[in-house]
């Protein structure tokens, strides 16, 4: 970015995807590559579970992949979208993970019904950019980790320019539907920058060096107490 230019401002998007049509269009998108990469990196990076809490679980694709990969984990998936959770119930049965994945309709910013230190691993994929105040969800995630717990949170990173946004949309969603392209575009505009993510992490006690770029559009918090 040239000197004097102002970085791309953050533009918030809708926090909850809660219409049947939105969820159906979301499920028609191809998330397998990014979900598999999430689980690969999670498992490769250290101990997982056995009690896993997934914040913003959506249709439970990551919990299903995780249960298929690790035989000893049990996952509690939390989401604010009732429609997402209804779809998740079907996906869990189809994925052979019934009994190992539980679902809870709750606000990830205010998880007062969950006991502090109740999770061995707290995970989340692309939740934070939906939130006006991502720190609230990070604070809950840290509270819910036990004393030897692991936090693994991945989200999009806001590019410096609108041109960079369009380049990433064309690269990663160019063959997808117009809906999918617009969803990625809005999400990139709503995401935090890497610096903002590090500042948010530090504000809840996570060291800045636990936050790193892990793709051309994602950063990841991987931290153990």
From TrEMBL:
Any one Pfam family match given in the protein's UniProt record, by short name: Methyltransf_31
Keywords: Methyltransferase, Transferase
Molecular function terms from GO: methyltransferase activity
Domain Methyltransferase, chain residue ranges per copy: 49-168
Coiled coil (UniProt feature): none
Domain of life, source organism: Bacteria
One biological process term in Gene Ontology: methylation
InterPro entries: Methyltranfer_dom (IPR025714), SAM-dependent_MTases_sf (IPR029063)
Protein name: Class I SAM-dependent methyltransferase
């Amino acid at each position: 970015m040239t000197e004097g230019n102002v970085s791309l401002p953050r533009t918030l998007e809708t926090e909850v995807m809660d219409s049947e049509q939105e969820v159906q269009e979301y499920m028609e998108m191809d998330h397998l590559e990014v979900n598999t990469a999430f689980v690969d990196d999670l498992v490769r990076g250290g101990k997982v579970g056995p009690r896993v809490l997934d914040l913003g679980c959506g249709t439970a694709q990551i919990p299903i992949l995780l249960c298929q990969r690790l035989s000893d984990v049990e996952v509690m998936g939390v989401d604010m979208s009732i429609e997402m959770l209804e779809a998740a119930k079907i996906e869990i049965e189809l994925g052979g993970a019934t009994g190992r994945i539980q679902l809870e309709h709750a606000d990830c910013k205010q998880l007062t019904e969950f006991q502090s230190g109740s999770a061995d691993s707290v995970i989340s994929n692309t939740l934070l950019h939906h939130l006006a105040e991502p720190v609230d969800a990070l604070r809950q995630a840290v509270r819910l980790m036990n004393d030897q717990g692991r936090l693994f949170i991945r989200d999009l990173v806001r590019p410096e320019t609108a041109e960079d946004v369009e380049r990433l949309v064309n690269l990663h969603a160019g063959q997808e539907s117009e809906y999918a392209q617009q969803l990625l575009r809005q999400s990139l505009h709503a995401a935090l920058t890497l610096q903002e993510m590090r500042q948010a992490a530090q504000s809840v006690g996570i060291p800045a060096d636990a936050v790193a770029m892990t793709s051309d559009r994602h950063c990841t918090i991987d931290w153990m107490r």
